[in-house]
Amino acid sequence: MTTQIAQSAHVDPRAEIDADVEIGPFCVIGPHVSIGRGTRLENSVTLMGRCTLGAHNHIFPGTVIGGPPQDISYRGEDTEVVIGDHNMIRECVTINRATTKEDRITSVGDRCYLMACCHVAHDCRIGDRVIIANGTLLGGHVHIHSDATLSGGIGVHHFATVGSYSFVSGLSRVLHDVPPFMLVEGSPSRPRCVNVVALKRNQFPGDTIEALAEAHRLLYRAKVGLDQAREILRSNGKLVPAVNHLLNFVQDQHEGRHGRGRERRRAA
After folding, report:
1. 107 close to 97: Cβ distance less than 8 angstroms
2. In order of start, what are the domains of the chain with their CATH numbers?
3. φ/ψ of residue 220, rounded to 5
4. Which of these is catalytic: 110, 123, 147, 177?
């Protein structure tokens, strides 16, 4: 296939458009945009600012990627959005480019699914295979690790981190970091149990799931404290790599402010 651009689309001649790209009616593509092979833009998609899309993405109507950050300190600095490959970005999603407060990049990894009306704010970092359902809003500087799932209507506080293989239930208010492997829910959200469904789907061994469940019990039900939980798990032979990862994440969270490990940067 060759690149197909609708007559009513406006594509700046300085934009870099790879082979097999489809650009639908009324799309607007700015001069500093790069679109990878096989990407498909439905009608009325806007790509602006410094914006890079990888290969084989599918972008639906009303989406705006690369708009300036909604941060009153932003003064038009040269920042960007980088999107990986094989992502599905549904209707009216907004992804803002970064500020200069971190590394000047807002990024989305590979094979993510962002459902309608999601907002990804400036300086967010989204890993691979992340699912974000309708109407979920990420504040600035949020990090979502690979294989996490966020349900619909969620608000995530800026500088929060969502760990891998976690699940955030719909309408939750995420004020604190979400530990990996956990299912969280509530306003504010709290870890309720281990995300067993995701772990089984991703072929985690049964003994690892059992060890994570015991870690959850010690940390969030018995509330024995991080150091004692680590010793109990070690003595029971359950300090497996996934549990170590969970405990290290929780330790980092506790060393931050307001239950968010990355708030240390702002505190400094």
Report:
1. no
2. 4-141 (2.160.10.10)
3. -115, -10
4. 123
* Predicted confidence band of residue 264 (pLDDT cuts 50, 70, 90): confident
Whole-angstrom distance, CA of residue 143 vs CA of residue 195 = 19
In this structure, what DSSP letter does residue 97 have?
Answer: P
Does pTM top 0.85 for this prediction? yes
155 is catalytic: no
Nearest to 36 by CA among 47, 25, 52, 51: 52
pLDDT digits (tens, 9 = 90+) for 98-149: 999 999 999 999 999 999 999 999 999 999 999 999 999 999 999 999 999 9
What is the per-residue pLDDT for 180? 98
Active-site annotation holder among 49, 66, 140, 256: 140
Residue 258 a catalytic site member: no
Residues found in the chain: 268
Is 140 labeled as catalytic in the residue annotation? yes
Provide the 3-class DSSP secondary structure of residue 214. Answer: helix
| Structure-token pair, residue 124 | 């967010």
Four-point Cα dihedral 62, 63, 67, 73, nearest 10: 100
